[in-house]
Amino acid sequence: MTKTIMTVDDSASVRQMVSFTLKEAGYGVIEAIDGLDAISKINGQTLHLIITDMNMPNMDGIELIKNIRVNKEYKFIPIIMLTTESQSDKKMEGKAAGATGWIVKPFKPEQLLSVIKKVIG
Amino acid sequence: MIDINRQAFIEEATELLYNLESSLLELESNPDNQDLIAKVFRALHTIKGSAGMFGYDEITMFTHDIETVYDHIRNGEICITKEIIDLTLAARDQILSMLSQSDDGPYSDDESTKAILISFRNIIIEYNSKTISSNELNAINSKVSQKKVSGTNETFIIRFKSSIDIFSTGTNPLILLNELRNLGSAIILANDTLIPLIGDLDPQKCYLSWEIILKTEKGIDAIKDVFIFIDDHCDIKISVIDKKGKLNESDKFNEFEKHCLEKTKSQQVNIESWLNEFESTLSSANQNKAPHKEKSRSKEISDIHRDSDSVSSIRVSAEKLDDLVNLVGELVTIQARLSQIAANNDDPNILAVSEEVERITWSLRDSALNIRMLPIGSTFNKFNRLVRDLSKELGKVIELTTDGAETELDKTVIERLNDPLIHIIRNCIDHGIESSEIREKFGKPKTGSIHLSASQSGGSVLINISDDGAGIDKDAVKSKALSLGLIQENIDLTDQELYALIFAAGFSTAKTVTNVSGRGVGMDVVRRAIDNLRGTIEVASKKNVGTTISLKLPLTLAIIDGLLVKIDDDHFVLPLSSVEECVELSQKDLNMSHGRHIVNIRGEIVPYINLRERFDIIKKRPEIEQVVIAGIKGTRIGFVVDKVIGQHQTVLKTLGKAYKNVEGVSGATILGDGSVALILDILKLAEKEEMEERNEN
Fold first, then answer.
1. Can you tell me the ipTM of this complex?
2. What architecture is the A4-120 domain classified under in CATH?
């Protein structure tokens, strides 16, 4: 069964790169441009993983994670956040909100895939 | 990545850079606007993040430090100044030109990049005397270097107690366990004792913990990486249990897995104690399997080398080294022959070549023997465990300290030293060191101590094993020796002679036989092993203060310095390490001693053994004989020969099975002219002489 991953990022190039990598690896991809967009697209979808940026306009990553975790259906979905190494406190905040793991930007496609593999097998 | 993505990135980045410029200019007139600062930060952040993904590593590196500064600005820790804005604008232009240039090849304008970076770093340094950026760089560097550590198998024990809420972070522990499995061979045991009764069970919680034994060559960092996302809210302990590689052989590993599975049926999971159990059965099995033991030890030693210096050493099988030393031995023999021929020929050319060959042979011999030298430390380390286990078993508190672990000895010597040392240390623990209560009564510290030290002196290595225990009870030794018929009632013995008795077979003064010692086997085995190594044992002891056993061992067994002597037409070699001096023995001396075998050296009476008589060489003795005086166990004994030829590099050859039981000869060597010289075991000769003397009386 194809696993579906949602990628949330305000940067079109990052989104493009992530979804290209994921599609190449055989995953289904849903793109969202920020937290609000993600919430609106998430409903009813069968998702296996969410990859979200931290810094986004409208609704940032932390808010998004909190919103997803209170949703009964997505309570246990793995969420990976994209962060930079200078944001270690952001990382802790994200984890407290319920993120499963993180990827430090910048990253290479193979790093992305290895983290995804780590989280959803 | 494909070009479309690159193109998309360049377009996006260019746009971001233009936005950045306008934000910066706005910020200059309005430096406190948080929204603008956030916007600048986000632009830098995105550029940095995406640049790395599309292979613009220079841009990432460059932007990283700028981003750090803006992170501080965003948190209100640094104020926006005109200087910062100027720098950021310059940086922005720099990134733009990096973007456009990188199309054609690597970016080369390093000077201005560096200048900007340094300015930004200075800002950070100014803010915080701790250089954050360099710390971070170090962290990155160490990450990189850690990745390089790999290669040899290590075995870890990992205790993974998941937090009860682990599922709510979207983590699936099974995936992590599978990931561990992919690192190497793993034994994973689940501990389910914390699962509550069904009424209290919350299916959304995780009650399990795991104990995992993992054999991997990827190193501890790879394991930590597995748990990287959960390490702060789960209890994870990783420890190396078997650096030495006992479990490294896959059959051992499988055996242990079976062992564990067997246990889980009946007991709660406790891998560590099971491992100890398994190890002890393993080591007792090893005692019977000498070749295997040798293998693991050489592995252990090479592990030590690896720890300190992984690049500059290589592992060579022990057989290859033995071959090399044998060949060098042959070479030494041939070289001696060459030297002899050269000496008999008056050709200066041959003489020059022969001297050259001699010089090179000697250094080759030294290097070849040196390769076989190993530090004794690894043997010492093993005794820590022995002391710990035994003292626990006997209810004593004992500490083992070591000294001179770096002292090097020939591999064979080290291997053959292991068992005697175990016996001696066992004796120290069992007989030597008293129980805590008795120690306190004598005003000694409660903790007994055993000190192992090794040092090199000349061609030998001294190993001292000293304890601060009760010392040897001389009266007990004496009465035991009397009852065994080892000594006679009315003979006065020196302390040395008395202590030597403890090495007699069947000798034990222990009142009770424990499973540690007291059966009277042991010390005689020690004596024999040390004798076989051509070493000596000395015992010094003081009642209630302690006992010191000193071993003196030759550095190597393959080639020794010998003294070549001649009796009639036969050559013999005496080990030079024991020889003290040579004196003449004339007819006049013989007359003066009235036929007794003694010689007077500077007023000291020294007994001698006439080798001509001992070996039944019937031809007439020469006018003047030579006496080689050797020090044996603290006394001086002479050996009468016809002629002393001189020092000889003696390559030891065994005599083979047929002559194994010949007493007084420890081996043979081949001389330069191809003839054979016997190597004399002067210790045995002296003992035999003594025995015969006694029987005559």
1. 0.78
2. 3-Layer(aba) Sandwich (3.40)
